[in-house]
């Protein structure tokens, strides 16, 4: 996947707020990645010690992100849940498992630049093992009309 494969509206909306995710796109930068374009998985990139699997469902995705025991990452795992439609429903069901003795950061970006009545829901489950250093952060952009 390259930059031209991901909706420019989503990339630009994040750049307008000084968030440059281009290095987080599969094939660019470092780190594991999962990208959505509405309810389609548009990119997955794995690195050693990380397993990412996902499947599409009618209104979203189900995904597993597993950080294998002893894995220590310098680069964050990047999740991008983008939608450039005005309306629709996106339901995300991630299960994130950090096995024992891991050190990981997860950075999620959720961008909906054209939202006007859009529904975005996440039902996340986190399983954190023993002796883990786990950080999850999420940034949202809901468009000029705040329609998500």
Question: Which keywords apply here?
Answer:
148 residues, five-stranded mixed β-sheet, SUF_FeS_clus_asmbl_SufBD_sf, 10 strands, 1 helix, mainly beta
Proportion in helices: under 10%
- Amino- and carboxy-terminal Cα gap: 27 Å
Net shape: globular
Please state the CA-atom Rg, rounded to the nearest Å: 15 Å
Total count of domains: 1
Describe the structure.
With 148 residues, the protein is mostly beta strands. It has one domain (3-141). Helices cover 5% and strands 48% of the residues. The chain has one helix and ten strands; from the N terminus they run H-E-E-E-E-E-E-E-E-E-E. The strands form two sheets. It has a five-stranded mixed β-sheet with strand order 2-1-5-7-10, with helices on one face. Strands 3, 4, 6, 8 and 9 form a five-stranded mixed β-sheet that branches. A hairpin with a 2-residue loop joins strand 1 (33-37) and strand 2 (40-45). The radius of gyration is 15 Å and the shape is globular. The two termini are 27 Å apart. The model has no long low-confidence stretch (mean pLDDT 84).
């Amino acid at each position: 996947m390259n930059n031209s494969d991901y909706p420019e509206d989503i990339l630009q909306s994040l750049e307008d707020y000084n968030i440059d995710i281009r290095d987080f796109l599969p094939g660019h930068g470092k780190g594991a990645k999962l990208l959505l374009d509405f309810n389609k998985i548009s990119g997955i990139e794995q690195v050693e010690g990380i397993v990412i699997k996902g499947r599409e469902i009618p209104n979203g995705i189900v995904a597993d992100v597993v950080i294998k025991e002893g894995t220590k990452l310098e680069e964050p795992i990047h999740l991008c849940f983008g939608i450039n439609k005005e309306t629709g429903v996106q339901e995300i069901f991630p299960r994130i498992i950090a096995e024992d003795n891991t050190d990981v950061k997860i950075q999620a970006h959720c961008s909906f630049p054209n939202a006007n009545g859009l529904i975005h829901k996440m039902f996340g489950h986190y399983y954190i093992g023993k002796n883990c250093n786990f950080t999850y952060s999420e940034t949202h952009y809901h468009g000029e009309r705040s329609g998500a």
